[in-house]
TrEMBL record:
EC number(s) from the headed UniProt entry: 3.5.2.2
Superkingdom to which the source organism belongs: Bacteria
InterPro entries named among the record's database cross-references: Amidohydro-rel (IPR006680), Hydantoinase/dihydroPyrase (IPR011778), Metal-dep_hydrolase_composite (IPR011059), Metal_Hydrolase (IPR032466), Metallo-dep_Hydrolases_sf (IPR050378)
Protein name per the record: Dihydropyrimidinase
Pfam families in the record: Amidohydro_1
Modification comment: Carbamylation allows a single lysine to coordinate two divalent metal cations.
SUPFAM superfamilies attached to this UniProt entry: Composite domain of metallo-dependent hydrolases (SSF51338), Metallo-dependent hydrolases (SSF51556)
N6-carboxylysine PTM sites in chain numbering: K148
Known cofactor(s): Zn(2+)
GO MF term list: dihydropyrimidinase activity; metal ion binding
Length: 449
């Protein structure tokens, strides 16, 4: 048994300063005062927020693309995640030899026994045909509750294929999300840059402007609306993207969306850093303007977004990104961030923007659990829910640094950023796995059905 005493318990509708008792892997009691059971481990949480374990709905661990393999596998990635307070991640699984079922099985095998937090999978759709349509209900039966399509990259689907995909998914009730950028326009802009010999990293954001994001959001939402099915937009990065989501909702279309911490604290000036440092920040969508940052913060405070994901997709600076510094199109895109996601978002939203801890909790715990079929097992401090707990000490100010980070990448994008609030303790299904910021137990993660 574990009893957490006198913490500020972040419930779904209020904050209760009190005690929480975990017996086995479940929460069994919540009250202002609970008698300490004999033999129970006592955790003093006075002056701390006690959140349901954070859920990261967007990670790319142990991924290989056309350019490189990620620095973080399930082992290192989930250790970093749980040290940052994340007790569940949803990773992307890609098909194998054209098969969704085989792809899911391969990714489950890679993760089994190597995860330090619980895990679940999104299924990527990189082609659409009768075989794929036939396998969609099979992978849903095997635990997949969400699919992702791409409107960018070489494996993007056509509008008709996206329509067919949503039509095939609709009977299952699974969520359909999309990477929304116009791939054809990106290709055209990249070709223009290549003709001019303008291939340094400062050109990366110029080939992926915000209007390309907003156009794709409109198109994807329209396809969903044509089928009267809700859609989800991942990593919204711009004011224009926000405005498009609002327009779609005003039309009565069902659209949910996610953003990421990098778009709240980093901006496009990073691409002009000296000594090729800008290659660290190549990602898609790219970093935007200060004005976009402000719009995203306002939208979060006003309840436009449902989730905050890390989009953790780590590559090393020296060995992977830097070698293509003279051709931005060859730089593997993505950044590490699973460990820093929760506390960066907390500092921005709760400390700087005065968001309530309850509303913050919904973004990082409750909403992703609901969207991805894990609620109320996950995402809430409720009797009968999993004993997944993240304790944040509100008082500790510290500086984020690679020296204290646990990604296998050789940098973090948040280097030197000061935050107030630190993940102190983490409990995973009743196991006290992180204590005073140190990982005590590894590899206890289980696949979430």
């Amino acid at each position: 048994m574990i009893i957490i005493q006198q913490g500020d318990l972040v419930l779904t509708d209020r904050i209760l300063t009190g005690d929480l008792l975990i017996d086995g892997d479940k929460i069994v009691a919540i009250d202002e005062h609970i008698s300490v059971p004999e033999g129970a481990e006592v955790i003093n949480a006075k002056g701390c927020y006690v959140f349901p374990g954070f859920i990261d709905p967007h990670t790319h661990f142990q991924m290989t693309n056309a350019l490189a393999s990620t620095a973080d596998d399930f082992d290192s990635g989930t250790k970093a995640a749980i040290l940052g307070g994340t007790t569940s991640i949803i990773n992307f699984a890609s098909p194998e030899e054209g098969s969704l079922c085989k792809g899911l099985e391969v990714h489950k095998e890679r993760a089994a026994g190597h995860c330090s937090c619980d895990y679940k999978f999104h299924m990527e759709l990189v082609e659409m045909n009768e075989d794929v349509a036939r396998e969609i209900p099979q992978v849903v039966e095997a635990g997949v509750s969400s699919f992702k399509v791409y409107l960018a990259y070489g494996f993007r689907l056509t509008d008709r294929e996206i329509y067919d995909a949503i039509e095939a998914i609709k009977p299952t009730g699974a969520l359909v999300g999309a990477h929304c950028e116009n791939g054809d326009l990106i290709d055209a802009l990249v070709a223009d840059k290549r003709k001019r010999g303008e291939l340094d990293v400062s050109n990366h954001p110029l080939t992926r402007p915000a209007m390309i994001e907003s156009e794709a959001i409109k198109r994807f939402s329209t396809i969903g609306a044509a089928l009267e099915y809700p859609v989800h937009i991942v990593h919204v990065s711009s004011k224009e993207g926000i405005e498009e989501v609002i327009r779609e909702r005003d039309l009565g279309h069902k659209v949910t969306c996610e953003t990421c911490p990098q778009y709240l604290v980093l901006d496009e000036s990073r691409y002009n850093l000296p000594d090729f440092e800008g290659v660290k920040y190549v990602m898609s969508p790219p970093l935007r303007t200060i004005q976009d940052q402000m719009a995203l913060k306002d939208a979060l405070v006003n309840g436009l977004f449902q989730t905050i994901g890390s989009d953790h997709c780590s590559f090393t600076f020296n060995d992977q990104k830097l070698k293509s510094r003279h051709d931005f199109t060859r730089i593997p895109g993505g950044i590490p961030g699973a460990e820093e996601r929760g506390i960066v978002a907390y500092d921005v939203l709760v400390n700087q923007c005065n968001m309530s801890a309850v509303d913050f909790m919904k973004l990082v715990s409750e909403n992703p659990a609901k969207l991805y079929g894990m609620y109320p097992k996950k995402g809430t401090l409720s009797i009968g829910s999993d004993g997944d707990i993240t304790i944040v000490d509100k008082r500790i100010e510290h500086v984020l640094s690679k020296e204290s980070a646990h990604t296998k990448a050789d940098y973090i994008p948040y280097e030197g950023i000061s935050v107030t609030g630190k993940v102190r303790d983490v409990i995973l299904r009743g196991h006290h796995v992180v204590q005073d910021g140190s990982l005590l137990e590894s590899y206890l993660g289980e696949c979430i059905p």
